[in-house]
């Protein structure tokens, strides 16, 4: 009986015991092992690897059991060649210690084991840095700009490098990790083209000699240097007497130059044309390099269907299955109220939207205007509401506490958003929309909004993307607009939105530039070469 009680007690003890959770080890994804060649190999002291403070480097050499890997001359030569000519891709060879690496290579047969190990590590470290720069850029846009909302690009450089190393396909890595977009390829071509130009030593075109715009057949001393610039860039060909007369040949050349730079191609020489002409070859090259960096920040692959906006070009393209199906002129934010850089997905079309005055416009525009004229908002069909949702008469509005109210503009043709807006998730409270200033689309400089993007002929765009000839034909859409009732329609077809910024590219072997409306190019180039 005692034995029975004893067994029962043991069973009870075991049954009451809390289950101890099993500890599941976290297994890190290992890079494939490196296949070493028969050439000279030496063991690497891990302390030397640790001095680089790079987890990636440690993992790379763990895959070779801490032995040197670059014994093969062909592989070393390829890496050195890539790093040395990295400037052809807009990168800086000095970032990859190319001079130091070449010194090691020149003494490869007499290097001590320690020096060979150091050389091997330096080759790996700098080649991986180069690959990272090619894939996602040298700089992190989130550390430079507060209004750039791009998905972070992750890159398993060890996995990619080791696979290419083992298969003797290092060259394919360099090709495959770069952006696939046509604009990026056009930028590389632009860099190649501009490197064919000689150094320019043309004097700057001074505004002292240009007190007004120059028109055909007029005379101006500035025309001598203007003609020199046109000849330099190839917009004017053949010989010219370099007189101060604005002749027909120069007029046609100016129009060609203006078209390449996104200016009104009217042949009239004003400040915008002079500003573009005064860019030196070196400044244009720097602009191209800055744009190559930006394109490495952007998404590597495009969605099947997407809207792509180039802010400095004031242009929106709808691309479906690799075909541009619609192009629209747009108005973008001013330099003070920049349009943010965004990658997102279109969600909703809203017809007859109301407009709620945002905080910045409230502070900088509405409050000063209301202090001068209490009927300012009423004249714009904007109603003031208190926190309880009650209408506040303008004469009872407290100018000392403007943030305690909501300011809502009713739907209609004169609404600030026009008769339509397109919503997409973002952290900046911006969207695409119509406008009550439709005459803006006829301007050449369209950096005029408060941050949102205004789209020309938006109802045609809505009909296109809703793609429902029964429920949302143009006639049905017009009926919805006429009702002045706010109506939200979900976009069933998936469209990505790429709202980006680039100011240079090439087309048919011609350099194309746009005004750097947010003054980003020079600063970015300086950071790249710092």
What's the arrangement of secondary structure elements?
Elements: H1 2-16, H2 46-50, H3 55-62, H4 73-84, H5 98-106, H6 113-136, H7 141-144, E1 148-149, H8 157-166, H9 170-176, H10 182-194, H11 223-233, H12 248-260, H13 271-277, H14 281-297, E2 305-310, E3 315-320, E4 323-333, E5 341-345, E6 348-351, E7 355-356, H15 359-372, H16 376-379, E8 382-385, E9 391-392, E10 406-409, E11 420-423, E12 432-433, E13 447-449, E14 453-455, H17 458-466, H18 474-483, E15 487-490, E16 496-500, E17 504-507, E18 510-513, H19 521-528
Parallel strand pairs: 1-5, 2-16, 4-13, 12-14
Antiparallel strand pairs: 2-3, 3-4, 4-14, 5-16, 6-11, 6-15, 7-10, 8-9, 8-10, 11-12, 17-18
Helix pairs in contact: 4-6, 8-9, 10-14, 14-19
Which tags fit this structure?
4-stranded antiparallel β-sheet; alpha+beta; 18 strands; 530 residues; disordered N terminus; globular; 19 helices; 12-stranded mixed β-sheet; L,D-transpeptidase catalytic domain-like; single chain
Summarize the structure.
The protein has 19 helices and 18 strands. The protein has 530 residues and is of the alpha+beta class. This is Murein L,D-transpeptidase YcbB/YkuD.
Give an account of the 3D structure:
The protein is of the alpha+beta class and 530 residues long. Among the domains are: 46-178, no CATH class; 303-504, L,D-transpeptidase catalytic domain-like (Beta Barrel). It has 19 helices and 18 strands. Strands 1, 2, 3, 4, 5, 6, 11, 12, 13, 14, 15 and 16 form a twelve-stranded mixed beta sheet that branches. A four-stranded antiparallel beta sheet has the order 7-10-8-9. The chain has a two-stranded antiparallel sheet with strand order 17-18. The chain starts with a helix and ends with a helix. 32% of the residues are buried.
């Amino acid at each position: 009986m005692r034995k029975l009680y004893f067994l029962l007690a043991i069973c009870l003890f075991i049954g009451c015991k809390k289950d101890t959770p099993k500890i599941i080890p976290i297994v890190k994804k290992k890079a494939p092992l490196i296949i070493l060649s028969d050439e000279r190999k030496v063991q690497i002291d891990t302390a030397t690897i640790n001095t680089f403070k790079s987890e990636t480097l440690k993992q790379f050499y763990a895959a070779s059991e801490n032995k040197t890997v670059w014994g093969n001359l062909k592989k070393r030569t390829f890496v050195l060649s890539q790093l040395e000519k990295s400037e052809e891709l807009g990168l800086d060879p000095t970032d990859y210690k190319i001079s130091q690496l070449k010194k090691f290579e020149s003494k490869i047969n007499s290097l001590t084991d320690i020096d060979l190990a150091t050389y091997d590590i330096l080759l790996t470290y700098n080649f991986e840095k180069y690959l990272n720069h090619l894939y996602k850029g040298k700089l992190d846009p989130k550390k430079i700009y507060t209004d750039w909302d791009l998905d972070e690009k992750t890159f398993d450089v060890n996995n990619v490098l080791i696979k290419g190393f083992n298969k003797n396909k290092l060259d394919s890595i360099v090709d495959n990790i770069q952006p696939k977009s046509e604009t990026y390829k056009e930028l590389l071509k632009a860099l190649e083209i501009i490197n064919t130009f000689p150094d320019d030593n043309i004097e700057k075109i001074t505004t002292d000699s240009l007190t007004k715009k120059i028109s055909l057949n007029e005379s101006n001393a500035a025309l001598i240097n203007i003609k020199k610039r046109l000849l330099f860039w190839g917009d004017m060909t053949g010989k010219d007497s370099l007189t101060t007369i604005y002749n027909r040949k120069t007029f046609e050349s100016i129009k060609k130059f203006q078209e390449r730079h996104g200016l009104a191609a009217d042949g009239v020489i004003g400040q915008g044309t002079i500003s573009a002409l005064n860019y030196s070859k070196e400044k244009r090259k720097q602009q191209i390099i800055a744009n190559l960096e930006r394109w490495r920040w952007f998404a590597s692959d495009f969605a099947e269907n997407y809207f792509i906006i180039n802010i400095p070009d004031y242009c929106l393209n709808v691309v479906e299955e690799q075909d541009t199906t619609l192009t629209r002129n747009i108005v973008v934010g001013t330099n003070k109220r920049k349009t943010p850089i965004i990658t997102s997905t279109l969600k909703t079309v809203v017809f007859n939207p109301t407009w709620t005055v945002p905080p910045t416009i409230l502070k900088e525009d509405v409050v000063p205007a209301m202090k001068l004229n209490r009927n300012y908002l009423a004249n714009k069909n904007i109603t003031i509401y208190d926190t309880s949702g009650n209408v506040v008469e303008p004469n009872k509005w407290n100018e000392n506490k403007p943030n305690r109210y909501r300011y809502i503009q009713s739907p209609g043709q004169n609404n600030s958003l026009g008769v339509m807006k397109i919503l997409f998730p973002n952290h900046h409270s911006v969207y695409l929309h119509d406008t009550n200033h439709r005459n803006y689309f006829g301007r050449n400089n369209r950096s005029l909004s408060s941050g949102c993007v205004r789209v020309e002929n938006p109802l045609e765009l809505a009909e296109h993307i809703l793609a429902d000839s029964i429920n949302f034909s143009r006639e049905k859409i017009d009926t919805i607009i006429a009702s002045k009732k706010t109506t939200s329609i979900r976009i069933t077809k998936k469209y990505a939105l790429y709202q980006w910024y680039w100011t240079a590219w090439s087309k048919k072997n011609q350099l194309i530039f746009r005004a750097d409306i947010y003054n980003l190019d020079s600063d970015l180039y300086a950071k790249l070469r710092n």
